[in-house]
Amino acid sequence: MATSIRLTIKSIYKNLTPKEQSIADYILKEPQKVSHSSISDIANDLNIADSTFFQFTKKLGFSGFKDFKMALLTSDDYQNSMTTIHQGITQDDDELEMAYKIFDSNISTLLDTKKLLDKQKLKDAVDFIDHSDRLFFFGVGGSEIVASDAYHKFLRSPVNVVHNADYHIQLMEASMMTEKDCALLISHTGKSKETIQLAEVAKKNSAKIIVVTSQIQSQLAKLADIVFTSISEETAFRSEALASRISQLSILDAIFTILMFRNAAGSQTSIGKIREVINKIKE
């Protein structure tokens, strides 16, 4: 299926209405049929009006059904997806097959997320961080693990970074932010009430807001100055939220590396100081 269509659907799916989700499911399940059907045929299959499907294609960013159908027919990724359908883990799989499928899922997650990266967003995000007095990392639950990892990384940069695992302290930190600070918030669904509250407090204080989420139409994403979308594949006993971590970590790795190369001299100094003190305890 066309990458733009498949990934866009995945990134907005949880924010769709039940009727829109049924349309999305149909497109994801029957891409070949959709690409060779008229809008009336599809509408009949779904028991909806032609105009309902037409409006859905517009929600995906297309000018209409013809534009949507052309994208579906001409995409290389669409052609590839017809022969490389991901198979979920089953009870009959042996240990090695299960491990392979987890690796395949992670590879798919990274490749899909990579396709959504935007050069200008990466540049703007690094600009925000580079020109901020302080960079705050916020995350709750599983997302806190990603925030903590990012904090551990960015401590090696010339940037003044702040992070605490306790939500109440995060909220207190957000309340002390200013227009000279930058907040980086991580949330798979973008619906975490705690993370949304953190973003609202930071925004009220005019801080720059960068969000990493899998749902581009979420309430959290709407509060952001810049949104990075992470795409994940769900497998047996592993939710999308758990699978999304590898893509979130990779997005933050990319931002960190760009920042370090931009500030090569300062980065070498900060890394040197950290290596010097860490090496002392390894001797």
UniProtKB/TrEMBL annotation:
<dbReference type="Pfam" id="PF01418">
    <property type="entry name" value="HTH_6"/>
</dbReference>
<dbReference type="InterPro" id="IPR047640">
    <property type="entry name" value="RpiR-like"/>
</dbReference>
<keyword id="KW-0805">Transcription regulation</keyword>
<dbReference type="InterPro" id="IPR001347">
    <property type="entry name" value="SIS_dom"/>
</dbReference>
<keyword id="KW-0804">Transcription</keyword>
<feature type="domain" description="SIS">
    <location>
        <begin position="125"/>
        <end position="265"/>
    </location>
</feature>
<feature type="domain" description="HTH rpiR-type">
    <location>
        <begin position="3"/>
        <end position="79"/>
    </location>
</feature>
<keyword id="KW-0238">DNA-binding</keyword>
<dbReference type="InterPro" id="IPR000281">
    <property type="entry name" value="HTH_RpiR"/>
</dbReference>
<dbReference type="Pfam" id="PF01380">
    <property type="entry name" value="SIS"/>
</dbReference>
<protein>
    <submittedName>
        <fullName>MurR/RpiR family transcriptional regulator</fullName>
    </submittedName>
</protein>
<dbReference type="InterPro" id="IPR035472">
    <property type="entry name" value="RpiR-like_SIS"/>
</dbReference>
